[in-house]
Write a structure and sequence with these properties.
Alkaline Phosphatase, subunit A; Arylsulfatase, C-terminal domain; globular; Sulfatase_N; hydrolase
Length: 499
């Protein structure tokens, strides 16, 4: 039988007694109307809250989607999905690494402020997360599935015996208490079954939140992830990478995994549609950080921070939109909470996108901020390079970027891909004096500059450092001041940049 709902707005009351009588009458009318149309009054209330599906790809730079202009990678499912909602071109994660980035998504705060800059740390128990608030304040059934979500510390043999004992003795892993359904690290082949398993456990009438994590396109890359493999010769190279056979081959393998991620995304949508339907579901697709190439993952340049953000909410978001407003990973949690009719936690520094999504008046961000800290679970030695340990902060406006490097003496090395053909050929070309000068200077200058400043309209590859130039002094000061404020308010442990 069709279900109907009545909604009333109370605008003014003459006394507290009148208020009490009116509210009582309204609730009675809601109950009567719900039963009259064959419904459950509790379900009638819950049905106003959207289900929320958050899908996260791994190491995915925003430029690498068909709808973003990449002519090599094939992403028909994500392209279609983007056309059904809104695509953001300037979405930036809070860090260019998976652990601190995911902390930003789940807390609505910077990785620095929630003490998640050492990479292998569990999220502190006193830091509240999006699924906890949805469950406690909104009655949501919540879950996480597929690839590791990275916020309970590393597992397996990546911890030494002392560290493992400290984690266990102090019960530092906490996500089994933060969500109702926890799948720690299932293989890709179980994507459909895990999503279906979660949905099958959602109590009748409850809204749900599910965070699905992909492996792709994380390094190491599998060129056979799609069939046929992409042709390295057909790839349009970004300005920050030289034209070398190894670079092209690495990119072909990387893009193939994005093609496979596109297929997995559709598997998730089909599973949700079959079990729960998609009409009342806010669906968000994003990346945790950018690609594992030089200037990408582990760096504060755009290829490391700028990730896809596609959002669909049928009946709420006008289809076919593309937005170039600045968005931070901090903004996802408050957006989801407000979409659920809840108030963000007071400690959240993210800015809700809900007014913008609904076509209402909104005030966009002026800046986004990001940090770089320790990477991976390895120990620090005299051979450690920037891929394993680097300390840096940045502020970015719509046009300019300011980077503050606190460990300029660390020899540069790309995260994850230093052993691949592309980087090895770049090192050989540098030693032979055959790299383009701007690229050679960017990756092989030692020590690196403490301050960097880029005009992203004139120099989208971020290869021409303008720090200290008189012609950009005013803008550089503006971004430096914004970064100083952010560092102070986040209780950042690094020394502040000189004013």
């Amino acid at each position: 039988m069709a279900r109907g709902y009545l909604f009333f707005t109370v605008s003014e009351f003459d006394s507290s007694c009148a208020l009490e009588r009116s509210v009582r009458n309204i609730l009675w009318l809601v109950v009567v109307a719900s039963f009259a149309f064959g419904g459950d009054p509790l379900q009638a209330v819950e049905a106003t809250k959207p289900n929320i599906l958050f899908v996260l790809s791994d190491d995915h730079t925003a430029a690498h989607l068909g709808c973003s202009g990449d002519t090599t990678v094939k992403t028909p499912n994500l392209d279609r999905f983007a056309g059904e909602g809104i695509r953001f071109t300037k979405m930036f994660t809070v860090a260019p690494q998976c652990v601190p980035s995911r902390a930003g998504y789940m807390t609505g705060r910077s990785a620095v402020s929630v003490r998640m800059t050492r990479f292998n740390s569990p999220l502190p128990r006193d830091v509240v997360t999006l699924p906890e608030l949805l469950r406690k304040d909104g009655g949501y059934y919540t879950g996480v599935c597929r690839r590791s979500f990275h916020l309970d510390g590393p597992g397996g043999n990546r911890l030494g015996p002392v560290t493992r004992k400290v984690y266990q003795d102090n019960d530092l892993a906490s996500f089994d208490e933060r969500v109702d359904f926890l799948d720690r690290n299932s293989p890709r082949a179980q994507t459909k079954s895990k999503v279906t398993e979660f949905l099958g456990q959602v109590p009748a009438g409850k809204p749900w939140f599910l965070w699905v994590n992909f492996n792709d396109p994380h390094h190491p890359w599998d060129r056979d992830a799609v069939n046929p493999p992409y042709d390295p010769a057909s790839i349009k190279l970004p300005p920050h990478l030289p034209d070398l056979p190894g670079v092209r081959e690495d990119l072909a393998r990387y893009l193939a995994e994005i093609g496979r991620a596109d297929e997995e995304f559709q598997i998730v949508l089909d599973a949700v549609k079959a079990k729960a339907g998609l009409d009342n579901t806010l669906i968000i697709f994003a990346g945790d950080n950018g690609h594992a190439f030089p200037h990408g993952k582990g760096s504060l340049y755009d290829p490391g921070l700028n990730v896809p953000l596609l959002i669909r909410w049928a009946g709420q978001i006008k289809p076919g939109q593309v937005s170039d407003v600045l968005v931070s990973g901090e903004d996802i949690a408050p957006t989801c909470l407000e979409a659920a009719g809840l108030k963000p936690d007071p400690k959240m520094t993210g800015k809700s996108l809900l007014p913008l999504l609904k076509g209402e008046a909104s005030s966009p961000r002026e800046f986004i901020f990001a940090e770089r800290g320790v990477h991976g679970s390895s120990n620090f030695t005299e051979k450690t390079r920037s891929s394993g340990y680097d300390l840096a902060r940045c502020a970015r406006s719509g046009r300019y970027k300011y980077i503050y490097n606190c460990t300029p003496w660390m020899t540069y090395s790309p995260v994850d891909s230093a052993g691949d053909p592309g980087w090895k050929q770049m090192v050989a070309a540098h030693e032979a004096g055959q790299l383009p000068p701007a690229i050679d200077k960017t990756y092989f200058t030692s020590p690196r500059p403490i301050f960097e400043f880029y005009d992203l309209e004139a120099d989208p590859g971020e290869l021409n450092n303008l720090a200290g130039k008189p012609e950009v002094a005013a803008e550089e000061k503006k971004l430096r001041s914004a970064l100083i404020e952010k560092m102070i308010l986040d209780w950042d442990y690094l020394p502040l940049p000189a004013e």
